[in-house]
Amino acid sequence: MTTPDQTAPAPTAPAASPTTPVHPSMEALGRRLGQVSDLRAAASLLSWEQETFMPEEAAPVRGQQLATLAGLSHELFTAPETGGLLAQAQPQTPTEEAVVCVARRDHAKATRLPTAFVEEQTRAQNEAHHAWIDARRHSDFGAFAPHLERMMDLARRQADLMGFDEHPYDALIDDYEPGMRASQVQAVFADLRDRTLPLLDRIRAAGDAADYGVLTRPFPAQAQKDFAWRVAGEAFGLQGSFARQDESAHPFQSNFSRSDIRITTRVEPYWPACLFGTWHETGHAMYERGVHERWARTPVSAGASLGVHESQSRMFENLLARSLPFWERYFPQLQEVAPAVTEGLDAGALYRAVNRVNPSLIRVEADEVTYNFHVMLRFELELALLEGTLAVRDLPDAWNAKMQAYLGLTPPDDARGVLQDIHWSAGLIGYFPTYTLGNLLSVQLLEAAQRDPAVAQGVASAEYGPLREWLVEHVHQHGRSLTPAELTVQATGQPLGADPYVAYLHRKYGGIYRLD
Amino acid sequence: MTTPDQTAPAPTAPAASPTTPVHPSMEALGRRLGQVSDLRAAASLLSWEQETFMPEEAAPVRGQQLATLAGLSHELFTAPETGGLLAQAQPQTPTEEAVVCVARRDHAKATRLPTAFVEEQTRAQNEAHHAWIDARRHSDFGAFAPHLERMMDLARRQADLMGFDEHPYDALIDDYEPGMRASQVQAVFADLRDRTLPLLDRIRAAGDAADYGVLTRPFPAQAQKDFAWRVAGEAFGLQGSFARQDESAHPFQSNFSRSDIRITTRVEPYWPACLFGTWHETGHAMYERGVHERWARTPVSAGASLGVHESQSRMFENLLARSLPFWERYFPQLQEVAPAVTEGLDAGALYRAVNRVNPSLIRVEADEVTYNFHVMLRFELELALLEGTLAVRDLPDAWNAKMQAYLGLTPPDDARGVLQDIHWSAGLIGYFPTYTLGNLLSVQLLEAAQRDPAVAQGVASAEYGPLREWLVEHVHQHGRSLTPAELTVQATGQPLGADPYVAYLHRKYGGIYRLD
Question: Is the domain defined by A121-516 classed in CATH 3.30.930.10?
Fold first, then answer.
């Protein structure tokens, strides 16, 4: 019950103001795509609110409401009427052509899986997810194994239904990284592995490069959040007029339009989690902010892929916020808000501390050097599971062996090993590689951007305005109108490779750990 | 972009677990009504969020998203398929019978207005709303007059399309107070007016009953909100497990299920605004909380009418929170959190201060004695406008004359007179009476409840548990399955009348102002 005393009516939506008259076939299609987009935005808002403010008792009902919104938007998008509108669409401009192209691709994919299969998959994922929560809690891989077998079986069937040229994995990774193939991932990962392992050995031999105790010095919660948010605005352009920061158990970015962006953070005694987590989500946020308004309320209005998205979050979090110029600029502000943290330090010492390389069991806590090994391990294992060359029952041993080979560690239990990630329980096979693809792309993009002297000069003095302009022009504005491969070549002049990232690691950590 | 590292999947909705097998006709209908209900809940959440947290730039897009959700839920509910499901429904239980009955009534009403008419009305309301904002800002009734004429014309046409027996006004008030008629409102209002005006004269003659300066003594913002929220929980049962309090420009209550209730408040130097505003919204909230789970995701799951809703908010705000036993109980807590407010006061002095009777120009600031005159004035005027016995151009004079007659005041300008309310600009003709109907019902219900000695004893000591149980049983749980008239007779033993309210005013204010 909301009474008119209490709330103002919703403001009127601005009328569409096309510069040229819209073709009738495009007008009907635009209306339909707009409805689907609005339903998905509403669902995103309900999900965001579930993680931030929702009272606990509301969880089951919220789940039902989200299921209804997802069902209705899927129904609307896959309806024969939508198929007809797409078939008859006569795009008149390059913008309209891109919208129709992306929408047709999405529609073809969305209609390729029979409803019965999707329902079976949803049920199985739900059961697997709950089984995983229990299994992880009790570190009992055996309880999760049958569910993982079923997930893999469903993944194989999904790949067959979707179709593929080379490898069934290609049909799966396409959901996250359109056009990517397992063979390409294998090639680039092998290169990266062979050239990073020796570096990691040398770093481990070098010993500590800083006093890492500063990373848990007292930093009041509100001051952490305020500082992270202020710098997200000052350095990276995230503003309260179109964005908010709130707290949630796991940090994430979500947006309901390019004018309505949310990031969340969490506060821990290990204060870099809040700061760098915020700037990571800021990278995601500024990507969505930069998508051009011309794609609003169409399926083009989103990041090109998970990998490209991750390239932006990682760029802000690691390449910029974990750089020496960044801390030379923001160290005085940190001193003001957290004197207990900075006592006896200078910018250089802080820079070395927040770039600690420390092989660990947990992927989400990993540093720039070791992170990709966590990803490679998972990619290799899920590929073998999908192919059937690795049995699910042998997975924990295989996991532990690879962990030993890559990072020299053995998990004390499966909770801190094979059961640590949510992805497989949610049926997300083919997702992991995008994390490392994003890391690689982040450096490749930043180097391309710095060919522009204004960008390079800005980055060297932690003035990121010119870089942000470059990113909007070469990455953000295109939304999904370019595939990740098209975008990479167009923006950097070459396909995605490991070279820039490997050179970056050697340069940066060679300096920090004095490896010359 | 939300990645699985970042958010847990939505929890599964609990499977429906009917005690008896559901008839196929009811199952399909239930699914459809559930979808409509979920869409409306999502829209409510988007509206709530718009008033609380939304970044300012997002307003136009949010408006579009809300329009899409409203359009889709209307489309789904009025679709011929829904009509077919309703026609063929074979309810097997009293619960199902009530659902089908209410849904058929809503469906008949929703399909009676042609789409072209609704679109014309929406456009006109939108224009009128913007014209009203400007007109109020410049206190320029002339600029709003043509829009009000159009609103009245549309209201007359709407009444004709909806149909009525006695008076076109009946077709309009039915949207807010189902089954109510203008003639009934006139009768009860006349009675109320004749018996309250002499009381008001005596109060005005009596002079001040307390030091009203205490109402603006310093009370820190956070302490106001915390105290209001804590007492809402302790006295009235509103709990964080199913509800939240946030801030907004205008306080309101909203809910997305009975497990997901939101109230908002605002903080002002006049601190009773925050406290009593919170407890007002708490009354609305506890009504929605008390609606029985059996009506979940059906159109029965809401308050019976705006009047019945207001009876609950007014009961909590005025009959309980502005009572002497309430302050005898909570004064010590207030002393703790706001010593500057309570200095030199006791519970009785505070009780008299917060019950100041003070004729004023603005309805939303009015006290228990004068509030209803504001409502009567509006009702009389909108009835005359609808009938055509009053011309729009003569409205300001008519307004000011009635204001003088009822409250002895003349507005210095139309902004503080005829232009003060949003309702007419939003096409809400027939809405105002529900405020006073709610006031009357609040006392009639409380007196009926206190025939139970446990309730009476509880109210006398500000222990509201027994009263809340009585309200759940006799009012809340029924949702919309009873009409307001049915509910009133069933709960109080007689139809709605002015007697209890008039007696209450004489008793309470006779004491405060020592009128004996």
Answer: no
